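Meet our chain:
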Amino acid sequence: MITLLLLIPILGSLLLLPIPSNGLTTHTQMKKIALITSLINFFLSLYLWSQFDFNTTQYQFVSEFNQLNFCHLNFGIDGVSIYFVLLTTFVTPIALLSNYSNINKNLKLFLISFLLLETLQICAFVSLDLLLFYIFFESVLPILFIIIILFGHGTDRFRSAFLFFLYTLAGSLPMLLCILLIYSYIGSTDFQLISLYEISLEYQKILWLGFFIALAVKTPLYPFIIWLPKAHSDSPLAGSIILAATILKLATYGYIRVLINFLPDASNYFSPLIQTIAVITIIYASLSTIIQQDTKRLIAYSSVAHMGVVVLGLFSNTIQGIEGAILLALAHGFVSPALFTCVGGIIYDRTGKRIINYIRGLVTYMPVFTILFFIFIICNTGIPLSLNFLGEQLSLIGIWQENPIIATLGATGIVLSACYSLFLFNRLSYGSYSPHLPILKDINRREYYLLLSLLIPTIVFGILPNVLLNPLHTSISALLYTF
């Protein structure tokens, strides 16, 4: 089953290769092949979810490929990774649809890049080997680098692409050294074998710091924030959607799978440090968000603040905190792509502008868009009945049991998120119509269904969270036991 999940996007890419790149008909044909391929993978992941047994902590649907001496692939899914796989397969068709009409040059490369990205991300979430996890963790970088260079906006995209690539690559080198140290100590990088070994606290501290640096850069946490807003602001809309929805979740998954699972004593020892860094990240990113004038950069900084709350929940050592962090990570994977679609897609495609001062009074000609934009804005602030609300509240309740002062400081992010989100909405939507803008058309059918597909899970899971929470209890309880 997992093998199919990994191979379908590759097969879709192979189908795209022989199609000639010129002509409107062939462009439409290539878009349909890529979209259908990604949708097949999404429905297959839903079937995988329906067949999954959440009453055990064991890895399921395990598949191995060891026919070659130099290559031993080992894949499997547990109660945590299944949600990240579902998020990846859900977001990929949305990313393809977001640039469905405005990418015509190098279209084949664009579509193949996103299909390969889907496979590589799923590989990272289902790998049962630490070295494999590192390889797939890093393998998304070259593809995203090419996407930003070839399909991004503005002349500054070259600097943004190199900043993103070098920052995250250099940050991950300590992780590679720690994996080699684990291999020399245990003789294997297999997840299940590592979990059987007792690693001393001194070794755990060294390994924890190496892994933490790599994951902190990818999250990103303060002071490693600078690459994310630039990568978002200069990448195409589909790149921003994938970056916000799933690439940042590689770090979230890494915290759960490696730091909390394999290095529990060091995680407990360093929890005051990471809680302090997370609080600084939340406050710094929130204050930075308020002063931003570029709409995509503003949403990017708000992503950093939300990921800070996710980290607080993960290192609360409570079932509420860790489950809340996973819910918030999923909610961010729905709401942040929707906001990028609004400001970096719908508004930017019509106006060619992202500077807030030039955009005003959109409700005059775009009432349907304004309603949907407002709903996603208030979801981003953590309004009740949204999945964001549950994720933030559970994360903060979890950290409150560990440290009330840290929880209080972390909760300031909720107030600040309301400030910058509503301030953004008010400036763009109301006031006298901007003289710098032509008369704009409201959203079309494609954009409407795109936003609706992101709104439905945000609200449905916000009202019925037990659909996600009940299956998580067994896996998260096992994590708490090992902490």
About this structure: Residues 155 and 318 are 46 Å apart (CA to CA). The first strand starts at residue 60 and ends at 68. The radius of gyration is 22 Å. The chain has 19 helices and two strands.
